[in-house]
Design a protein that fits this description.
single chain, alpha/beta, FAD/NAD(P)-binding domain, Enolase-like, domain 1, 7-stranded mixed β-sheet, 13 helices, 24 strands, globular, binds flavin-adenine dinucleotide
């Protein structure tokens, strides 16, 4: 039996961040992973999808090169070459991460782990005991009753990012982040795309104004979508997959991508047997990611917080620091930056208008249209920066739509998390011409001194 300060089950964003920080703080750490170090984000999530989206951006740039006076001709997408580029990025990062884990003297264990006591994980008969055990087994793509994933015609994001050709047409079931990102990629690659979303709007967790702008932009790009009507049934035939909705309408396409959310990986690995409190498979934790069983912690997609890699990182670090006695501050989940990396991007931090009102704030808003921003005109992108603020108080939310606005979150999250007021930001000078000026201009307007804006 091997004994450690920290035994971590799952080497994805949450697990490996916890391992790296724990080792840095002088804890002895074992990290157990049955597949590949880096988990979903590196191998099946963030990184591959963003590589595909970038390839899509290059395709669109080539198609529209003439708009910028550049003669170029878009010929076709070579999926084998796209995959080679994407896999090259993953492989480089994977090697880097493996080196990092090794350099911190973390004991890396390959194999399927099972929680067999509150402080022990069994990996193929070898027991790893920790003063603390951190569960970080992540999530898997969900499907709906009546929707069997066959991996060819009916697929999840796992198969979607490994396709060796561009399908002629795709139905994307689910208009959340993952669904919208794949819809965007496939449209850029030349497929006919239809999104089906049961909720009344695309990216329904975002501010309503962001959804409306994304829908407008998608319509302009020729991405079809049906919102507010639920999936009823699916049949497969020689012409592809036909989906029928509850309102009776039908859609047929070569491929159906099921992107209806992700569920926690928590079954049959000993969690129930150890008496862990769970809800629909998610492990329940307190604000420091402690479970109800002393010495067991849980982080990442396995717990019911935002399913994002950087949330997993933050939770992993929080747990390591708490165990090392640093008494870190709990995470303010409102302050987590969120991006949908479609074209255009949707990015936000803080509260939506609806949430701010629900929490009793006297809300003021400002919408700065990117039409007034020099760099946005140069890039030929449309969108806006919307601010939600408390009347005579801090900024409560920043919501942005447009090409590359995800990069603007670096500043937006400081504004929200440091509880800045409009006048604080209005005093900061933003470089011209940059997209970041739109943030400055929005705050100038909110502070009552608009520059390149009417009001
Ligand atoms: C298509 C897609 C795109 C995404 N894009 C983004 C994005 O752009 N930005 C972002 O922030 N997030 C994104 N995400 C979400 C992000 O990938 C997850 O939030 C993140 O990976 C969660 O980390 P985790 O450590 O909780 O779980 P995971 O990364 O899933 O890691 C869990 C690990 O545990 C291992 N494991 C499970 N059970 C066992 C066991 N019994 N024994 C041993 N090992 C086990 C698994 O093999 C896995 O490696 C995306 C996800 C998907 C699917």
């Amino acid at each position: 039996m091997s004994q450690f300060d920290l035994v971590i089950l799952g080497g994805g964003s949450g697990g490996y961040a916890c391992a790296l920080r724990g080792a840095q703080l002088g804890l002895s750490v074992a990290l157990i992973e049955e597949d590949k170090l880096g988990g979903t984000c590196l191998h099946r999530g963030c990184i591959p999808t963003k590589a595909l989206l970038h390839a899509g951006e290059v395709a669109d740039t080539t198609r529209h090169a003439g708009d910028f006076g550049v003669k170029a001709e878009f010929v076709s997408i070579d999926m084998l070459a796209v995959n080679a580029y994407k896999d090259g990025v993953i492989s480089k990062l994977h090697k880097g991460l493996q080196g990092l884990v090794k350099s911190r003297n973390i004991t890396y264990v390959e194999g399927h782990g099972r929680l067999v006591s509150p402080n022990t994980i069994d990996v193929n008969g070898t027991l790893y005991t920790g003063k603390n055990v951190v569960l970080a087994t992540g999530s898997y793509p969900r499907t709906l009753p009546g929707l069997e994933i066959d991996g060819v015609q009916v697929i999840t994001s796992e198969q979607a990012m490994k396709m060796e050709r561009v399908p002629s047409s795709v139905i994307v079931l689910g208009g959340g982040v993952i669904g919208c990102e794949f819809a965007s990629v496939w449209k850029s690659f030349g497929a006919e795309v239809t999104i089906i979303e049961g909720l009344p709007r695309l990216v329904a967790l975002e501010d309503e104004s962001s959804s409306k702008q994304l829908e407008r932009a998608f319509r302009k790009r020729g991405i079809n979508f049906e919102v507010g009507t639920k999936f009823a049934s699916m049949t497969k035939g020689p012409n592809g997959v036909t989906v029928t909705l509850e309102n009776g309408s039908t859609f047929t396409a070569e491929v159906l991508l099921v992107a209806v959310g992700r569920g926690p990986v928590s079954a049959n690995i000993g969690y129930e047997e150890q008496g862990l409190s769970m809800d629909r498979g998610y492990i329940l934790v307190d604000e420091k990611c402690r479970t109800n069983v002393p010495g067991i912690w849980a982080v990442g997609d396995l717990i019911p917080t935002l399913q994002l890699a950087h949330v997993g990182f933050a939770e992993g670090i929080l747990v390591a620091e708490e165990i090392a006695g640093l008494n870190p501050r709990p995470i303010n989940y409102d302050g987590v930056p969120r991006v949908t990396y479609s074209e255009p991007e949707v990015a936000s931090v803080g509260l939506t208008t609806a949430q701010a009102k629900e929490r009793g704030h006297d809300v003021v808003e400002i919408n700065y249209d990117l039409a007034g921003n020099g760099k946005a005109n140069i890039l030929k992108t449309a969108g806006s920066v919307k601010l939600v603020a408390a009347k005579n108080g801090p900024v409560l939310g920043i919501h942005m739509v447009g090409s590359r606005v995800g990069e603007l979150l670096a500043e937006a999250q400081l504004i929200f998390n440091w509880e800045a007021e409009a006048s604080d930001v209005a005093n900061l000078i933003h470089a011209h011409p940059t997209m970041s000026e739109a943030i400055g201009e929005a705050h100038l307007a909110l502070a009552g001194k608009p520059l390149h804006a009417h009001g």
